[in-house]
Write a structure and sequence with these properties.
There is one protein chain. This protein is an alpha/beta fold and 235 residues long. It has one domain: Ribonuclease Z/Hydroxyacylglutathione hydrolase-like (Metallo-beta-lactamase, Chain A). The strands form 2 sheets. The protein has a 7-stranded mixed sheet with strand order 1-2-3-4-5-6-7. Strands 8-9-10-11-12-13 form a 6-stranded mixed sheet. Helix 6 links the parallel strand 11 and strand 12.
Length: 235
C-alpha cells in the first residue's frame, strides 16, 4: 500500500515495495507552508499518481520542488506526472538523463537491450512491470542543476556525495528535523555493473553521520537512527 508516514519534524516518508524484483524506491516529502519538497519522483507515472493520492490522504500539500537523489529510473521516471514542480538534480545526472530521454523506451527497446546484455534483465524486467503506458512516459532531466551543494528556500540542503552507485548521488539534509535522506548513495553499483568485490560503501555513510542528525533514510531500506546507523557500520 502506498502511504506516507510521519518520521520527524516536517519529514514524511513513503516506503517502496519490499519485493526486490519490482525495484521500487521509497520517496519522502518535506512538508512546508512555504512550498513542500518531494525527494524522488516514483518509478513511473502510475506510481507517481499513487503517491499523489497518498499525499492527499495524509493531508500534505503538493510539492513545489522535486529533488532527484540520482538519475536511476526508479527515482525519476515518475517525474513527468508531477505538475508545476521545479526539478533539482546534480549536473552530471542532467547529462545522463538527457541521454536517457532520447532513448525509444518501449517493450521492444527493453527486449533488444536485454538481448545485447543479459545482465540488464532484472532492471529492464522491472521497468516493463512498472510502466502502464509507454506513451505517457517522458524522462525529464533536472531544470535546476548544482555541482556541490544547493539550499532551497525552505532551508533544505541538497549535497553531492557521488559514490559507486551513481556519480550524481546526492543527499538531502533537513537540519531542523534532524533527518538526512541518503537515496541510494551508499549502495553498491547496479547489478549489471556490479562485480564480486562490490559491497555497501560504509565509509561513505560514516563520513555523513553527524550528532545533530538523528534519522538516516535510504531509498530501499527502513530508516535508521543515528545509534542504529553507527552500529550497522561497526558491525
Amino acid at each position: 500500500m502506498v502511504e506516507f508516514h510521519h518520521l520527524a519534524g516536517r519529514v514524511w516518508v513513503c516506503p517502496g515495495d519490499s519485493d526486490p524484483e519490482l525495484v521500487q524506491a521509497g520517496v519522502a516529502v518535506i512538508a512546508d507552508e512555504r512550498g513542500s519538497i518531494l525527494v524522488d519522483a516514483g518509478q513511473s507515472p502510475s506510481h507517481a499518481r499513487e503517491l499523489q493520492a497518498a499525499l492527499r490522504t495524509a493531508g500534505l500539500p503538493p510539492p513545489r520542488w522535486l529533488v532527484y537523489t540520482h538519475h536511476h529510473w526508479d527515482h525519476v521516471w515518475g517525474a513527468c506526472a508531477w505538475p508545476d514542480v521545479e526539478i533539482v538534480g546534480h549536473a552530471s545526472g542532467a547529462d545522463l538523463l538527457r541521454a536517457e530521454a532520447a532513448r525509444p523506451w518501449s517493450v521492444r527497446h527493453l527486449r533488444e537491450e536485454v538481448l545485447r546484455n543479459r545482465r540488464l534483465g532484472p532492471s529492464f524486467r522491472a521497468r516493463a512491470l512498472a510502466v502502464d503506458s509507454w506513451a505517457e512516459l517522458t524522462v525529464l532531466p533536472p531544470t535546476r542543476v548544482f555541482t556541490d551543494e544547493v539550499e532551497l528556500p525552505t532551508g533544505v540542503r541538497v549535497r553531492h556525495v557521488g559514490g559507486r552507485h551513481a556519480p550524481d548521488s546526492a543527499v538531502v539534509l533537513v537540519p531542523d528535523s534532524g533527518v538526512m535522506l541518503l537515496g541510494d548513495s551508499w549502495y553498491p553499483p547496479p547489478i549489471h555493473l556490479r562485480t564480486a568485490d562490490d559491497g555497501p560503501d560504509l565509509a561513505l555513510v560514516g563520513r555523513l553521520l553527524h550528532d545533530e542528525i538523528e534519522w538516516y533514510v535510504s531509498s530501499h531500506s527502513p530508516p535508521l537512527t543515528l545509534t542504529e546507523a553507527r552500529a550497522a557500520i561497526a558491525g
